[in-house]
Amino acid sequence: MSDAAEIHAVRLVGDADWIAAAELCRVCRLDLEAVVELAELGLEPPRGYPPEQWQLPAAALPRLALAGRLIRDLGINVSGAALAVELLE
C-alpha cells in the first residue's frame, strides 16, 4: 500500500492582505449567506459589491473560522456566533 501525499500551495497573508469572500467561505466552511449576516452584524467589514465579489481582511480569518465552528459544531445561530466571538475577545 502506498501513501499518497497532497501538496497544497501555501501563501502567508498579513494584516494588510484581503481575501475573496468565496475563498474565505471555503476555508472557514461557511456559506456566503452566513458571511453576509456576520458582516451585517459588524463582525468584519467587507469591501466591494455585491457580496459575491466581497473581499475581507486577512485578519478576519481566525474570527470567521471560530464563528464557523460555533455555527457548525454547536448549532449556534449566526447572531449568537457573532456575539460569542465578540465576547471571547
Q: Please report the number of helical segments.
A: 4
Count of strand segments: 2
Q: Looking at the structure, what is the overall shape?
A: globular
Radius of gyration: 14 Å
End-to-end C-alpha gap: 46 Å
User: Strand order of the main beta sheet, please?
Assistant: 1-2
Instruction: Spell out the helices and strands N to C.
Output: EHHEHH
User: How much is the average pLDDT?
Assistant: 85
Helix content: 40-55%
Folded structure, characterized:
- The protein has 89 residues and is mainly α.
- The protein is built from 4 helices and 2 strands; from the N terminus they run βααβαα.
- The model has no long low-confidence stretch (mean pLDDT 85).
Question: Which characteristics define this entry?
Answer:
89 residues; mainly alpha; two-stranded antiparallel ribbon
